Structure formats: C-alpha cells, structure tokens
Amino acid sequence: MSQWKQIQQLEIRLLEHVDYLYDDNFPMDIRQGLAGWIEAQDWDSAANDESMATVLFSNLLSQLERVRSQEQNFLQRHNMKIIQQQLQVKYTSTPAIMARVISTCLREERRILASACMQEQGPLEKSLQSSVQFERQKNMDNRVGIIRGSVQMMDQAVKCIEDMQDDFDFRYKTLQSRETTDKNSEMMKQEVTRLQEMLNRLDFKRKEILSKMDVVIKEIDDLMTSQLSPELQDWKRRQQIAAIGGPLLTGLDQLQSWFTLTAQSLFQIKRQLDKLGELVVKVTYESDPIPLQKPQMEERVKYLVYHLIKSSFVVEKQPCMPTHPQKPLIVKTGVQFTTKVRLLVKLPEVDYQLKVKTTFDKDLPPGRVSRQFFILTNNTKVMDIEDYSNGCLSVEFRHLQLKEKKYINGTKGNEGLLSVTEELHSLSFEACFTVQGLTIDLETCSLPLVVISNVSQLPGGWASVMWYNLLTDEPRNMAFFGNPPRATWSQLSEVLSWQFSTFAGRGLNKEQLSMLGEKLLGQHASCSDYAVSWSKFCKENILGKPFSFWMWLDSILELIKKHLLPVWNENYIMGFVSKEMERTLLKDKEQGTFLLRFSESHLGGITFTWVENENGDMRLNSVEPYTKNRLSALPFADIIRDYKVISDRVVPENPLKFLYPNIPKDDAFGRLYNSQPSKVHPYIPSILIPISELRSNVSTSSPVSCQSPEPPMTPGEFDMLNKQLCFSMETKIRRKMAQWQELLKLDSAHQGHVRQVYEGKIPLEIRHHLCLPIESQDWDSAAVDENKACTCFRALLLDLDEQWNRSVQENNILGGPNFSGMKDFLLKYQPMNLAVILSECLKEEMRILASAREAKHCGSPTMEQNWRMLEHKINKLQKQTSEVKQEIKSLEGLYENLGFIQKNWQSRVEERVGLPQSKAAVEEECCQQTLIITQTKQLVLQQVGNILNQVEQTIVTLVDVELTEWKRRQQKACIGSPVDTSLDHLEKMFTAVAEVLVQIPKQLQKLQDLIGKYNSTDSSNLTGQMAEIESFSLSLLKKLLSNALVVEKQPVMTSLPQRPLIIKTGVRFAVSVRFLANLTEFIQNSSLKVTPSFDKDVEEAKTLKGFRQFYFDSNDYKFMDVHPAGGGLEAEFGHMLLKERKGKGKGSQETKVVDQPAGKRKRNQSEEDQLHLTVLEELHIIKFVMVFRHPGLECDIETSSLPLVVTSSTSQIPAAWASVMWYNMLSNGEQRDLSLFLTPPSLTWEQLSQVLSWQFLSAGQLELNNDQLSMLRDKFVDNPDGLVHWKDFSKCDKNESSAWFWIDGILDLIKKHLADIWRDGSIMGFVTRTKTKELLKEKPNGTFLLRFSESIKDGAITFSWVEHSNGGTHVHAVAPYIKQELSVNSLPDIIYNYSLKAQKNTNRNPLLYLYPDIHKDTAFRRYCSGSETTAPKNSKHGYVPKNFIPVSENPTPPPSPTRELEMMDTDSDQDTSMERQKVIKELFPDLLLPDYPGVCTPSLQFTFVDPQSFA
Questions:
Q1: Any idea which of 125-129, 182-186, 817-821, 1462-1466 has the lowest mean pLDDT?
Q2: How far is CA 256 from CA 223, 392, 1256, in A?
Q3: Around Cβ 1349, how many Cβ atoms within 10 Å?
Q4: Whole-number Å distance between alpha carbons of 475 and 400
Q5: Rounded CA separation 1325/1260 (Å)
Q6: DSSP of 994-1042, one letter per residue?
Q7: Bridge partners, 475 (sequence order)
Q8: What is the arithmetic mean of pLDDT over 1439-1451?
C-alpha cells in the first residue's frame, strides 16, 4: 500500500497534522494527483544535488501537465494550471529548495504514520504539540498587533503636536513683528493670553505623548522579555528535536513576523522621538518635558533594538553533509557540508550588503578538545533576500570544508579524555549590522557538532548528537560528555522510534519498543522512568555480544533502509521478537506459518522462523540470518518465494506458507517479487534458489530470475477503479446539472469568460460543488424576496453539510473539497445579496453558452494550438536560462576546486612520500580543470547567444501576431462580440520572456564577477563579448516592454457599460491600463507612473476645421499596482472627466455646419464643407505614457485607447454608437485613422449583420437567427452591390431616419422591458407580412407570435394571432406597445391578461398558443405577476384591489380576403392615421370625432378594471 493511501486511512486527528504540512510551497493537490510518482523519486538526494533536483523539477512539471491535460473537470484543470504556474515562478531557479520541501513532507508523513502505529504520542512530541502552545501564539499575535496599533496612533499624535506648534509659532512671530506702540494695546493682551493657552495645550500634548511612549516602550520591553525570547528559545528547542528525527520544524516565519513588527514599532518610536527633538529646536520653554525625558527614552529604545536584532540572528539550517541529509550536526573532514543563517528582522532600511563570517571553535577554552580544525574554503558570504520565501534575509554556505590542524611536535594536546565522537565543536557566525545610525555586532552559533574522520565513526557520532539534543537545551555545552546525564526509557524509546520513521518510513509500535526495552534494560524494562546511562546505551557491549546496543540497532536501520524498505513499510517484519515470544506466537499456528525478525547475534541481519509439524510434534525452525551482503545479491521477497528445504533426499519444497498470523505468502509478498527475468543474453536461463537442510539449518542463496504470479491490484489501478465507481454513483446527480455541465464542455476561451463572471464574487469551487442546489433554486425571485432568499440560502448550506458528512463517512477529507472554507465564505453574505449575485451570474452563464454555440461557426481552431506552441517555446527558453544559471553555478564549483588543488597540493604531496610523479599529476589536473573552465565559459556565452536569438523571434511573434490579434479581439468585444479578451495568457508569456531577458544580464554579471575574482587570463576577450550580449539583451527588453503597456479596459461610462468608447462631457468615465511584463522586480525598483493625455500628437486636431478640443478636469495620474483580485499589474483611472476647451478658431456658423448630422446638411454646401466631420464622426484618443527605469534601461512606454466619440447630449449616443461600430468593424486594431469618416468605406452585409447580431446578444443575451437577419437585410441593403454605405446607415432626417435608429430603439426596448422573453426565444421579432400569414394560417385558433413594430422608431412590440371564423382565416394584430406602456404592465402580464370584449360584454383571451404550439402558460406564466383567475385579495384600508387588464373590442372580420391589408403596411398606416387624428383633435378639441376601425385592434390601455368582473 502506498504511503499516501495509508495517510488517507488515518483518523481525523492525524489528518489535521497532515493538512498542516501542505501549503503554497507544496500544494496537497500535487501530492494527491502524483502520489505514486512522487513516492518513487529520491527527494533526499535531490535536495543536495542541484542537477538532480533540476531534472526532477522538470519531470514534475511534465507529470503535472500530463495529469492536467487528462483531467476532465474544468475546476480541477483550472486549479492545476494555477499551481503549475506558481511552482514555475517559485522553483525554476531553485529546484533544490523544492526537493527539500517535498523530502521534508514525505519524512513527516512517515513520522505521522509511525505515531499512528504507536497509537499514542511520546512525552516529547506531546509537549511540542500542546494546545497551550497554540493559545500562546494567538495571544502573541494579538499583543504585537495592539502595540503596532498604539505606535500608529502615536504617529498621528506627533503630527497633531507639530500642527499645533506651527500654529503657535506663526502667531508668536506675528506678535513679535508688531510695532512697539501696539504691544500695550488691549488686543495685544488678548493675543498674549491666547498664546499662553496654546502653549499650555502644547505642553499638555507633549507630556501626554511622552507618557504614551513610555507605556508602549515598557510594553515592548515586557513583550520581549516574557514572550518573544521564550518563543525563540522554544523554537530552538524544537529545532533540536527536529534534528534528531522529531516532528517537522515550523514557526520560523511566524517568529520573523513578530520580530519584524516589534522592530518596526521600535524604529517608528525612534523616528517619533527624533521628530520631537526637531520640534524642540523650533519651540521650547521652561519645564519643557521633551528635553528632560527624551534622552532616557532614546537610550531605552536603542537598548531594546540592540537586544532584539542581536537575538534575531539564528541558524536556520544546522550544519549537515549532503551525503547524510538525515544526520545533521556530523561533519567529516575533507567533505563539504552546508549550513544556513537567517536574520528574523526584515526592514526596508537594512543594508543588504551584510557580510557573514564563519569561524570554527571560536573562543573554545584550551585543552577542551584533543583535535583542532579550521575551515578550508571561503568562509565569508553576503546575505541576500530569498525570492522563493517571504523575502527573508539569509545566507547559505554550501561549500564549507574542515581540515584538521597538524602539530609540529606531533602531539594534539589533551588526548584521551573523550573519544572523537564525544568531542563537541561549534560553528560560529558573525556579522556587523548597521541601520539608522545603529551598529550592532551580530553573533550566533550552531548546535554542537561532532567531527569524524572516517565513515565508520558515523554511528557513534549520531548517538552523541541524539543524546545531547535529547537531554539538554543548552546551545554550547561543550563539556556535556565529560559527565553525560542519564535518559529515561520513555524519552529514549520515543527518539528510537523517530529513527525508524525517519530512516525506514515507519516507526516502532508498543510491542517492538517493549522488546527493545527488555534487551537494553532486562528486568527493568517495564519501568518507563528507569534511567539509562550513556555508557550502557552506546559504549558497553551487550552481554555475550561483541557490540553495543546502539551499534546493533543502527545496523538494523541501515539494513532496512538499503534492502528491506518495501517489506518493512508493509508492516510484514515483526522485527524485535525474543525467542521466547516467538515460540509463544507460533506454537498454535498451522504448519508453514512464519514470521520475520531481526537477528540478535548478528549486526544487521534478518531471519525467518516457521512452524513444522512432524509426527504430531511442533517444531520451530529458523534460517541463518541474511545480512546486507546477501541481500544486495537477491531481494528478500524473492528469497521468501524461492526458499527450499531439503531433508533426507526428499524433493525440495518451500516450507513458508503463511505470514504470521495467517496471510498467504504470495498475497503478502506477491507484488514485491522480481518477476521480470533477465533477457540480456540469448541463453537458456538458470535459476538458483535458496535451500536449507534441516540438520544444519544452512541456507544458500543465489540470484533468481523467474516469473511470479500476477500481482494484486496496484494503487494506480485501484484509484482508477475507485474513480469509475464514484463516477457511476454521481452520474444521476450530474444529469441534473445541465447548465454547469455544458459550461465544463466549452473551450478554454469561453471557460475564461466563466471565470471572469465569478471573479471577485463567488469562488468557482462553490459553483462547481453546489451546482445542483444552485441551479434548482429560483434566484431571480429570491433577489427581490427576503423570505425566498433565506429559503434558498438554507438549501445551499444544507447541501454543503450533507457533502461534508459524506466525505467524513468515506474518510476522504484530504482528497475532497474544502467544505468548511466554502461554508465560511457563504456565511459572509446576506441571503438577498447572494441571491442577486447568483441570479446575475446564472444569466451571464446562459449568455456565454449562447455565444459559444454561435462561436462554433466562426472560431479559429488554430488559435489555441498556436498558443500552446508559443508557450512551449517560452517554457523552453526558461529552461535554457535555468540551465545557464546552473552552468554558472557549476563554474563557481570548478573555480573553487581548482583553487583548492592549487592551494593544498604541496601539503598533500608531502604526505605521499615516495611519489615524485604527484607534482606532474597535479599540474596536469590543473591544466585539465582550466581547460574545462574555459570551455564552460564559452559554452555559457554560446547558450546565452542562442537564447537571445530565440527570444528575438518570440518577441516578434508576441508583438506582431499575438498582441495584434488580441487588440483585434478587443475591438470586436467592444462592439458586442463574445470573444475572449482575457490578458492573463499574454501577460504570462510577456512576463516569462521579460524574466528571461532580466536574468541574462544578471548571469553575465555573475560570470564577470567569477572571472574577476579568480583573475582569469581570458577575461579581456570575454568582456567585450559579454558587453555585446548584454547590449543585445537590453535592446530586446526595450522592444518587448515598449509593447507591454496596453489598455485593458477601454474608456466607458458607468451608465453605459455595454457601449464603451462613448464619452459625454461632464460625465465621469473609467479606463484601465495593464503592464504585461508583471515582474516583481519592476515594481520594487521603479515607480511605474502612468499619465494620461487627451488627443496628444493628434494631427487631425490641427488639420481639420472645427475639430473640437478637450482636456481632463484634473491632472490625473496613477501608479501601477498589483490588482488584488487578478494579480495583474494595472493602473485604473476610475473618475476621469472631460471638458471642452473653447477656442477662437471655431466660428459660430462653422460650428453649426459641422455639428449637423450628415443627413441634415444642406444640399448647396460646397464640397469642401461636405468633408467636414460631424461631432459624432470626430474620433479622439486617450494616450497613456509610463516612464520606465531599470538598471541599464530607461524609456517612455506609450499606448493609446481605441478611437472614441465625445458627445454633449444623451440624444447623440445612438449615432455615436453607430460611429464606434462602423470604425471597429473596418479598422485592424493597429492604425489609428481618426479621419476615417471623411471618406468612410462601406460595409458588406455579412460584416454588418454580425455586428447587429452582437448588439442583440449584449442587450438580451440572444443573437439574431438567419430568418431575422434575412428580414433586416432588406431594411439596410437597397443597392445591387450588396454594400451598406455609411451615409445610409447613419442618416437621421426629420422625416426619415436610418434603420439603425429603429434597431437601436428596439434594443433599448429589449434591454429595459423584454430581456427575459427575448432570451427565451419567445419573440420572433422581425417578420414580414407574407411570412406572418404563412406561419399562422394553418395553426389552431389562438396561435400568436410577437413582432416589433416598424412604424414606431423608438421601439414598440405587438402580437398577431390567428382566428378561424365564418369559414375564413383572419390574422389580427394589436396596436403596438411602447416603452411607457410596458413600464406599467409587463408584456407577459399583457399577454396573460389580454381580453377581447364581444358585443354581449363577454370577455375572452384570444391568445392561447405561442407559435408554433407552446401553451401560453408554459411560455409566460413564470414571468407574470398575476393572472385573470387569481382570487381577489382582501381589501386594504377599505378599498377593493385593482389591476391593469388589457382589453380590446372584438374585431369584425373583413367581408372578403381581398380587403386584407398587409401586416407591415398596416402598422405604418395605423401610425400615420393616429398622428393625423392627434393633430385634428389638437386643432378642433370641441369636435367629437369617431375612431376608424381597421385590422389592427387598438388596446384599451390603462383602464382600471375590477378583477372580480373577469373572475
């Protein structure tokens, strides 16, 4: 069973510890998705091998990409993509850090599994994980926060004092400047009195702020003494425990936060005191409290700062050899080791050129140790900020090496007191810290080290490390082993179990520890408090054995780690069993039952004992122990499978049948067998099997190669089957999730739209896992009904609780969603607010689905493929850049090795007397190393040149293709197209390329530093070459960045969000720009200030007569900042406002001419005048300029908005929108032709129809179908060339206007009153007379359709229905309903309650079926506020309730079909007739004029009707 499977079967208490391990550094999603692959890699080795870590990191990304591409779940795929991007950013340059993180997580998992096997925690682990500790940390957070708040408030108080003092100083100096004769006046006396009062208040405020400062300083002092220092000591103690295999060490980041916040508070108080000192210089007086108290306070602050920063210098990673990562604090001479120190105070004022020097055994008293050592390699490095962490200041020494000092007189000093593994040494670190005028000498040291000179001393050294760190928390007790204290068995047994969980993956259980206790303590084993001496544990031999207890146990650990790990982790090895216990366990078992145990007589041996029944007698047989020599030739599982016993020439047989207690052998070990025989050579294979003779109990073993039976189901197969089973169970539920399932099937572009819909509103995780209850509720009603909203809200929470309970029952907490987080998020909302959001989001989802269906016919299938190819190319560039970085690192190692050889070869030759060829060999080796270094440098420069050539090609593709295509898509999106305009993908590519270009000069500088440091002979040749490369790199970066500034959100007024690029003077609008090169380095190193300007450098403003000029109401500029929701680098201008600049160049008459629309111009105007632009044809732009500064590069980066139209009246908006649509259909997104409308090109009907369809999609979430577009074509196209001309599209005369303004009226009607039924497809809309008759004539009575009126240009709708009577078929239409009428009664209510009044005053509704055959109730009932059959409600205040009911007179059918009028023409005639009657009535109000009947039946609107009369 895999480790992750075992983890998932743990109880909830332990799973919470597992959950604590995983965060953004190593998300649990990766651990879950790649469990098998992760556990198969050697992360321990990779953590100390940069090249191996790089390979594993690359493989990890490939595995993650493979899993993501196979993932069908949109949400999971989205999350994996984000995780993959985060990993690339975090670990591309430091893959070894990633390996270390994963190694630590796996090790801690094994420890947790071990603790589960022990069934209870030991005393040490309990003490480290007590609830008191969590409460203490919570209290600490609260206290630090209160102090920070108090210091911030004191800042305000100091500013207040400064203002008061300035006021006093001004009045006082004014008083001083007056004439001497005025000084005795009454006004002067009043002023003096007023000044005295001000001085008294100032004195009070000064005393008050000093008192507050004193309180806060005391609070900080107490915090440091009573809490901060103990927390630091507690962390150091936990570091000791973690070093010997204990729980995972955490909390340093939390400590850094406390230290940093405390330091910030102290420095802020110091600045406040300095400010008070400045105030005293300006104004002071007798008994001024500041000069009296300030010096003492400053001294106390300095004292606290000194001790805080001095204690913040810690060893984060104790010295450790890369070859033995799980045994820190042991160093072998001549072998490199690593260590890391960290400063817990993170301040922007800190001088980051902080040099740290290491010293070995500093200030060690003479005679304390027999051996003395010195650091052979470079022992000084500069602290740096870690990119992958939270920005802490640290330095890691990776290549430290010790060498023993040689003594001339041949003696080492005080020998014989302690063994070499009991001698303790230390590594000291020193630095000089300077900040704000304070200089602090920092010093810290490692935990005591053991220095060995031979690998055989490693077990003894590790015993010393364990014993020391188990029993003392003193950091430098070098005399510890002069009189080592005793350890209780409860302490020691816990540490021993940690060794097995760390090295072997599974700790020891109670029974195993009990047997070990018996072996070590004998009769005292049952006493957990029995004290074990150091000598008995490590130095004294076991009775009758030539080795000590620890040597025996350490050899078993080594055996498990190298040869028995799979068997041990499956819990098949009982291990520590005495022979008496063995007999007790096996005596009642059937023949062939066996158990595995470790040998007590051999170092590092394992044996098995089995039951044999012979003639009714039970006998136990044990094989001679297998040691590491034998197990290196044949796997232990194969030995068990092939083991044979021969006795008295009987045919050999395998006596091993059942693993204790009763597991069939093959079931237990089957999947561990080596089932693949060797096929290297075409020979007949021979099989060597282990055989024993019972008389001698001798076993021989040889390599075996034979087929094993088919293994049981693997974890991967089990996972697959489990998913299939889960899928089948969930299928019934998912069938109901129609809308969400459709969204999951969309392409990435439309799914990106879905993500944008929910961004900043509701997490996609909630939408995904609660799709069933979300889609089953009526959120539209809930958005206006609080009770309904509460009901729907409770339904969500109930479903969430049910899913959580199910995951608990299925023991799937880790693998399941974060239900508690989802619930916490939902509870932040008021039910009605949540209902409004969900209602809007669900409607937007429907719009996206509609656009996706349309996009299937016009989308580009190659776009995503091109993106993937480009992304692959950029990833390759990043990988190559990382390889260059690794090459330079390896070059540093080569230089160090060469320096080491050149420095030490003479002493080494002297040691090898009689080898004269040594010097020649050293010289040859130095030449070889020098050649390799030279070749490596040339290779690096060649790689860099190749990278830059590829980058150049990539930039061309990004700028000329991808960015241009995005700008074109943005143009279409502005005029309603549902295309994807997300910039995330482009930003990722721009950022990645920019990062490559930024890294190149850095790596070249490192290379230059290396060459200068080691005085390379070829430096002059390489310097010129590197300068050219760097110059080329900067030029590419400039080209990339000059195109990286884009307008993400085009100018738009908040009142017209669906019609951007129209600005009305005096009305605020918003626009945002985005910088696609989103590197943190750019933000930190420069202030990216963006300044907008209107019509900057626009030639049309100078050349066109009457061209209006505008300016911004205020000098508005913004600084680029990271957007909190999306993470993009943006500057959002949310409150921009335009005003017109009145100039002399525009005469009044000229203004009148150019302000007229095209259709209103006089026919006798000259051709020159006709070329003038109307105000709605003038195009303007907003230009944005950003000053960019980076080392070696400074430039102005510009971008501009799409051309926009400026209006001065709301009535101009339809015509302005026509200009915006026309321009953006014709323009390619790059050229800014602001004079396009001087000679505007024509559009084809295919182009225009697409734009018109998009307008209906924006207004009503449903595009036009082919039939509707066909009818509209006749409205717009009236010429043989099939083109639509601008003058025809935009004309607006008094008696005639273009079809566009009619369409715009309909769009407004849909948006305000008909959105729901338009979205449902209930409105046929654009239908010709002939088509209407064809559609309805064969339909049953009462079949009706909805269409828009052509006679009312502001937008109106009517319905036509069919009636079969008197042997004929008649089609009737009601008088169109306009916006004013629909604002009183909704169209569904009108249709549902519409009545015809017959001659006998009977009423009936002629509307029964919506075309083609949809019952009226089905189509409209859900949108109605009531119906005609609703029982009357109780009267309120004595009144009978009323409602608006549409009623018409029953039409009289025409006598013959020839008198039927055309439907479309009737609308026009009716409209003309009504207007004529209106004029006549205005002229002759005293005449009673009859109404003229027609086919169109006028509805009697706005008549108050008693609902009971229609019951």
A1: 1462-1466
A2: 15, 8, 57
A3: 26
A4: 21
A5: 13
A6: HHHHHHHHHHHHHHHHHHHHTT-TTHHHHHHHHHHHHHHHHHHHHHHHH
A7: none
A8: 52
Q: How many residues does the chain have?
A: 1511
Residue-wise pLDDT tens digits, 1042-1064: 999 999 899 998 888 888 999 99
Tell me the pLDDT tens digit for each residue of 348-367.
655 456 889 999 988 777 66
Cα separation, 198 vs 249, in Å, equals: 58
For tokens 């030991």, what's the residue? 122
Sign of the C-alpha dihedral, residues 1093, 1099, 1102, 1106? negative
> Alpha carbon 66 to chain centroid distance?
20
What residues are paired with 1414 via a beta bridge? 1410
- pLDDT for residue 310: 92
For residue 1479, what are its two tokens? 């004029």
Average pLDDT over residues 1342-1354: 87
**Contact call for residues 85 and 468 (beta carbons, < 8 A):** no
Which residue has tokens 């004269």?
A: 916
Q: List, as one string, the DSSP characters of 1387-1411.
A: HHHHHHH-EEE-TTS-EE----EET
Percent of the chain at pLDDT above 90?
A: 11
Name the pairing type of β-strands 1118-1119 and 1089-1094: antiparallel
* Tens digits of residue pLDDT in 1382-1408: 887 888 888 887 877 665 556 678 888
Residue 661: cis peptide before it, omega within 30 degrees of 0: yes
In whole angstroms, how large is the CA radius of gyration of the chain?
43
Q: Using pLDDT thresholds of 50, 70 and 90, give the confidence band for residue 1429.
A: very low
Q: How far apart are CA 1177 and CA 1205, in angstroms?
A: 7
Contact 219, 161 (CB under 8 A): no
CA 395 to chain centre: 28
3-state secondary structure of 1253: helix
List 395's β-bridge partners, or say none.
Answer: 341
User: Rounded to whole angstroms, how far apart are CA atoms 232 and 230?
Assistant: 5
Name the residue type at position 1220.
V
Is the Cβ–Cβ distance between 1128 and 987 less than 8 Å?
yes
Question: Three-class SS of residue 394?
Answer: strand
Those residues whose C-beta lies under 8 Å from the C-beta of residue 582, and which sit 6 or more positions away, are: 595, 597, 609, 620
CA distance 891 to 899: 12
DSSP assignment of 498-528 equals HHHHHHSSS---HHHHHHHHHHHHGGGTT-T
Pairing of strands 427-435, 438-445: antiparallel
pLDDT at 1445 over 60: no
Residue 488 backbone class (left: φ over 0; alpha: ψ -120 to 50; beta: rest): beta
Q: How many CA atoms lie within 13 A of 406 on its CB side?
A: 5
Distance between CA atoms of residues 957 and 948, nearest Å: 14
Tell me 1243's DSSP state. E
- Reading the block at residue 183, the tokens are 């000084």
Q: Beta-carbon neighbour count of residue 705 at 10 Å?
A: 15
The CA-to-CA distance between both ends of the chain, in Å, stands at 74
Distance CA(553)–CA(406), nearest Å, equals 35
Residue 255: exposed, middle, or buried by beta-carbon count in 10 A (0-12, 13-18, 19+)? Answer: buried
Comparing CA positions, the residue from 507, 422, 512 lying closest to residue 465 is 422
Looking at mean pLDDT, say which of 203-217, 372-386, 749-763, 1151-1165 comes out highest.
203-217
Residue 925, CA atoms < 13 Å, CB-side half-sphere: 15
CA angle 301, 305, 307 (to 5 degrees): 120
Q: In whole angstroms, what is the distance from residue 927 CA to residue 937 CA?
A: 15
1253 vs 607, 636, 1250, 1283, 1307, CA distance in Å? 82, 74, 5, 17, 11
- Cα 230 to chain centroid distance, Å, stands at 35
Neighbours of 420 (CB within 10 A): 17
Q: How far is it between the farthest Cα atoms of the chain? A: 140
